[in-house]
Amino acid sequence: PGWWSEMNAIIRHGGRDQNRGMVRLLATQGNVEVEASAATSQGGCGCGYPSYVAAGVVGRSDEIVEQLRAAAHHPSADASILPWLRSLPPALSVDVTACAPAEPPKQSSSARIAILHGDPDSLSGWGLSAEAVDADVSNTAAGGVGHADGVALAARATRADHVVQQAALRRQLGFDVASHERTGRKRLLRWFGALGVRAILSTHSCLAFAQDLSPTQAEALEYGLPVGQPLAVFNNGAAGMPNFAGETCGVMTRVSASTDTPPDSMYGAQVGPLRIDALPVAYDHEAWRRTFRAAWPEGSAASISYARRIERGPEYTRA
Fold first, then answer.
1. Of 87-101, 146-160, 244-258, where does mean pLDDT reach its minimum?
2. Which of 22-36, 51-65, 94-108 is predicted with the least confidence, judged by mean pLDDT?
3. Which helix (H) or strand (E) holds 135?
């Protein structure tokens, strides 16, 4: 109950920015928020795991979310938590502008982005996972790739290299292109056109990556997109635990109307008037390890699923 209360307070009352002071925070629903606030338990995590994910992973996730649900429904929990979780929107569509707060918006320097949990078709969809989005849809690709025969593959790569690297990742995860749904160029462009956005920001599938693409004139006309304008997909992986082998930081997606590349950018792209970057989320690694172990001792569902990743990161490497 205490954890939900703390999250509720932080998001509702805002956070502190070193340059702007207190700022308003927005939240969206993910599968955990939906399942934890449900009036009756369905006994699942709502993760929508694809069939290539091991049954043990699925079962442990169900157990973790059921415990979070019990905490949210506990008699000692803040009475406002459940209504708050149920009121969160499933996605956000946001205009990012280059103007100062006191100035009127400058349409020529603004662009709309979508922020969602899974993919545009489903709150818990895996269509924007690193393994699902075909590497050859993009002009460039960045993020991470799995290990092939024990060799760490480079993350920032040419299109041809990334196709090879993604094939290795798919083999590692058991993603069979013949039997699992892939997200190709047409599916991505359909989503961009339906949402009317220049960038789609996602999470859920826990592996960070980014791809950009520029529709041809024929594609722009077919899907109702601006001609000659770049588009981008960014999946931040996980903000609260390591995303790459040997690294102990989370990843967040930063969107800015400034074209300057942040000094701590892990990788990024210029998308029209916007600069989008994956930034490290630094935290006290030792303190987080202690907190995690206290809440989820050895042998618990979360410890089995996540302790190794929290200690050393996943078998997923970036350049």
1. 146-160
2. 94-108
3. none
Give me 49's structure tokens.
């795991």
Q: How many angstroms separate the CA atoms of 148 and 169, rounded?
A: 7
Asked if 262 and 231 touch (Cβ cutoff 8 Å), the reply is no
Distances (CA, A) of 212 to 132, 139, 155: 15, 6, 14
Tell me: pLDDT of 68 over 70. Answer: yes
Is the separation of the CB atoms in 303 and 269 below 8 Å? no
The DSSP symbol for 109 reads G
Rg of the chain over Cα atoms, rounded to whole angstroms, equals 20
Give residue 305's Cα distance to chain centre.
Answer: 18
Q: Is the torsion defined by CA of 31, 36, 38, 44 positive or negative?
A: positive
Instruction: Copy the structure tokens of residue 59.
Output: 């079962």
DSSP helix/strand/coil, 288: helix
Q: Decide if 280 contacts 250 (C-beta within 8 A).
A: yes
pTM: 0.87
pLDDT at 312 over 60: yes
Q: Classify each residue of 178-204 as buried b or exposed e, where b means 16 or more C-beta atoms within 10 Å of its C-beta.
A: eebeebeeebbbebbbebebbbbbbbb
pLDDT digits (tens, 9 = 90+) for 204-230: 999 999 999 999 999 999 999 988 889
d(CA 156, CA 247): 16
